[in-house]
Amino acid sequence: MFAVYAARPEADDPLAALTVGERPDPDVPAGSLAVTVRAASLNMHDLWTLRGVGIKPEQFPMILGCDGAGVLPDGSEVVLHPVVTSPGWMGDETLDPKRSLLTERLQGTFADTVVVPERNVLPKPESLSFAEAACMGTAWLTAYRMLFVKSGLRPGQTMLVQGASGGVSTALVQLGCAAGMRVWVTGRSAEKRELARALGAHAVFESGARLPGRVDGVFETVGKATWGHTMKSLEPGGIVVCSGATSGDVDAAQLQRLFFLQLRVVGSTMGTRDELADLLAFLDVSGVRPQIGAELAMTDAEQGFEAMLDGDTAGKIVLTR
Ligand SMILES: NC(=O)c1ccc[n+]([C@@H]2O[C@H](COP(=O)([O-])OP(=O)(O)OC[C@H]3O[C@@H](n4cnc5c(N)ncnc54)[C@H](OP(=O)(O)O)[C@@H]3O)[C@@H](O)[C@H]2O)c1
Q1: pLDDT tens digits, one per residue of 134-146
Q2: Surface-to-core class of residue 193, CB atoms within 10 Å of its CB (0-12 exposed, 13-18 middle, 19+ buried)
Q3: What is the 3-state secondary structure (H, E, C) of 275-319?
C-alpha cells in the first residue's frame, strides 16, 4: 500500500530518512480494526520520529502520522485516539507506563490503511470534515487537556500561550477564546502574531516582550527559548502547564521565583479517550474548527515536513488521501 515512512533514524538530517513509497499491506489482528485513511495531520512528533527520538532503532521502517480520520470497513466514519495502552490497562491511558503513541510501536496514519486496537477509534461527528477531524488526536487533544483538565483556570482569567502558529498553540488560542478566557500570545514574527489575532487572541506580543500585566496561567511547548519569560509573566500562585520543549530543556528553572511566588509547574501529555470524545463534542456544539494552514495530498508530504522543520506553520498541516 501507499505510505509515507521513516526509513531509518536520522538525528541531524530528519528529511533524509523521509520516504514516500510503498509498504506491505498490514495484517489485522483480533481486537483491531483496519481504518481506510481519508486525512491525517502532521505533528512535531513525526519530526522527532525521523530523528530517532522516542522510538527504538529496531522499529524502523516506521509509517509516520499519529493523527488520522477515516472509514471502517462497515462505512462508519471515525477519528483515531493515538494513545495505545498495554493489554488490560484500565483508567487514564496517559498514565500507563507502557503506553505508546501510534508510530512508536504500531504503524502510523500516513498510508492507505492504519490498523489500531478497537478502543482507539471514536465516531467522527458529522459536522467535522475528515481534515478537521484529523487534527484532533494529538495537538488539539493535548491543548484540551492542558487547558481544561490541568490548568484549573476559569473563564475570564488571563492565559498566555507561548508560540503563535503551531498546532498546539493555535488549538490553545482557539479553545481558550471559545471558553471565555482572556488570551495573550507571543509569536516570533508579525505574520504569526497576526494569525493569533485572527484566531481571536485579545493581545499579541513579540517573543520575550514585557507584558502589560501578569497572567494566571502560561501554556508552554517551546521550553528553553521562552521559559524565563514564562516564569516572569505569572501572577503569584499562577500555573505553567508544559507539554513540550521544542527549543530544548531549560538551563535555569528559576527556583527562587518558583517558591517565592508559589508558582505551580504542571506537566501534561496527550489526553484520554474520554477527553477526546469531549473535545469532539466541544467542536460539534461550539462550531469551533481547527486552524488548518496547509492541506496537501499525502503524496506531497515532504512539502509539509519541510514547512514544519523551517517553523513555517500557520496552524495544522493536513495530508489527505
Ligand atoms: N506532550 C505531548 O503530548 C505533546 C503533544 C503535542 C505536541 N507536543 C510538543 O509540543 C511542541 C509543539 O508541537 P506542535 O506539533 O504544535 O509543533 P509546531 O506546529 O511545529 O509548532 C511549533 C511552535 O513552537 C514555537 N516555537 C518553536 N521554536 C521556538 C522558539 N525558538 N522560540 C519561540 N517559539 C518557538 C512556534 O512559535 P511561532 O508561532 O512563534 O513560530 C510554534 O508555535 C513539540 O515540542 C511537540 O513535541 C507534545
Answers
A1: 999 999 999 999 9
A2: buried
A3: HHHHHHHHHHHHCCCCCEEEEEEHHHHHHHHHHHHCCCCCCEEEE
Which residue type occupies 32? Answer: S
Tell me the pLDDT band of 191, cut-offs 50, 70 and 90: very high
202-222: pLDDT as tens digits: 999 999 999 999 999 999 999
Region at 14 (left for phi over 0; alpha for psi -120 to 50; beta for the rest)? alpha
Q: Name the E strands within 141-221.
A: 158-162, 182-187, 203-206, 215-220
**DSSP annotation string for 149-163:** IIS---TTSEEEEE-
Amino acid at 321: R
> Of ligand 1's atoms, which has the minimum distance to the CA of residue 43?
15
Q: What angle do CA 147, 150, 153 make, to 5 degrees?
A: 55
- For atom 45 of ligand 1, the residue with the nearest CA is 246
**Whole-angstrom Cα distance, residue 232 to residue 249?**
17
49 lines ligand 1 (CB under 6 A): no
Determine the distance separating the centroid of ligand 1 and the alpha carbon of 113, expressed in angstroms. Answer: 28
Q: What local confidence, expressed as pLDDT, does residue 39 receive?
A: 98
164 Cβ inside 6 Å of ligand 1: yes
Residue nearest to atom 21 of ligand 1 (CA): 166
Centre of ligand 1 from the C-alpha of residue 283, in Å: 22
Residue of the nearest CA to atom 2 in ligand 1?
269
This prediction has a pTM of 0.98
Residue of 149, 205, 222 to mutate, ligand 1, most atoms within 8 A of C-beta: 222
> 24 alpha carbon to ligand 1 midpoint, in Å?
32
